[in-house]
Specification:
The complex is a heterodimer of chains A (115) and B (110).
Chain A: E1 5-7, E2 10-13, E3 19-24, E4 31-37, E5 44-50, E6 53-56, E7 65-68, E8 75-79, E9 88-95, E10 105-106, E11 110-114
Parallel strand pairs in A: 2-11
Antiparallel strand pairs in A: 1-3, 3-8, 4-5, 4-9, 5-6, 7-8, 9-10, 9-11
Chain B: E1 5-7, E2 10-14, E3 19-24, E4 31-38, E5 42-50, E6 55-58, E7 61-66, E8 71-76, E9 85-92, E10 98-100, E11 104-109
Parallel strand pairs in B: 2-11
Antiparallel strand pairs in B: 1-3, 3-8, 4-5, 4-9, 6-7, 7-8, 9-10, 9-11
The chains are: A mainly beta (115), B mainly beta (110).
Chain lengths: 115, 110
């Protein structure tokens, strides 16, 4: 079974530029999460999708961040414009319905550096 | 905001020794999970303990949960160099949203 795929793995941009991250969850996983992990910290949830619907985006800074999950599969997280403080690793995770729905599977992440 | 706090922040032990790390959290939970993160494999789920459970085992891992104290511990027995990683506890209040702690960085010296 293929894991959660994320791209790109690394991204370096200048502040005020836009950036987008892509995530392909494990096949059959209807729940998708985006997290941000700052250096030396644990991941912090940004948004959770159940199929196409964003059911929890309370931690997403909506002035500059946006996300979409078209057709309930792949998802894209966008930052526009990026700020220095956005430098972090952006993680995507997915989980399946059923008895193991509490277990999340994480992708390798995208390391963003804003200069 | 992060719900959990791990203790210690860093731990260094010799191969073969046991490693214990603790997690404290603030609010009621449905379950508590432990994850491991290293550069090679990213963030990986280790074990889940439900709020009505007090202890759980998985291979060399033993997790305890004390809901009255809002705390959990992870014990890794007979540690190996490959156990070197950061370990995070994550709490789920029932909405499938995980709140991660700050992590314990474990180094196992061969």
């Amino acid at each position: 079974e293929a894991g959660v795929v994320q791209s790109p793995r690394y991204k370096i941009i200048e502040k005020k530029q836009p950036v987008a991250f892509w995530c392909n969850p494990i096949s059959g996983h209807n729940t998708l999460y985006w997290y941000r992990q700052n250096l030396g910290q644990g991941p912090e949830l940004l948004i959770r999708y159940e199929n196409e619907e964003a059911v929890d985006d309370s931690q997403l800074p909506k002035d500059r961040f946006s996300a979409e999950r078209l057709k309930g599969v792949d998802s894209t997280l966008k930052i526009q414009p990026a700020e220095l403080g956005d430098s972090a690793v952006y993680l995507c995770a997915s989980s399946s319905p059923g008895t193991r729905r509490y277990e999340q599977y994480f992708g390798p992440g995208t390391r963003l550096t804003v200069t | 905001s992060q719900q959990g706090e791990e203790d210690p922040q860093a731990l260094s032990i010799q191969e073969g020794e046991n490693a214990t790390m603790n997690c404290s959290y603030k609010t009621s939970i449905n379950n508590l999970q432990w994850y491991r993160q290293n550069s090679g494999r990213g963030l990986v789920h280790l074990i889940l303990i439900r709020s009505n459970e007090r202890e759980k085992h998985s291979g060399r891992l033993r997790v305890t949960l004390d809901t009255s104290k809002k705390s959990s511990s992870l014990l890794i027995t007979a540690s190996r160099a490959a156990d070197t990683a950061s370990y995070f506890c994550a709490t789920d209040a029932g909405a499938n949203n995980l709140f991660f702690g700050t992590g314990t960085r474990l180094t196992v010296i061969p």
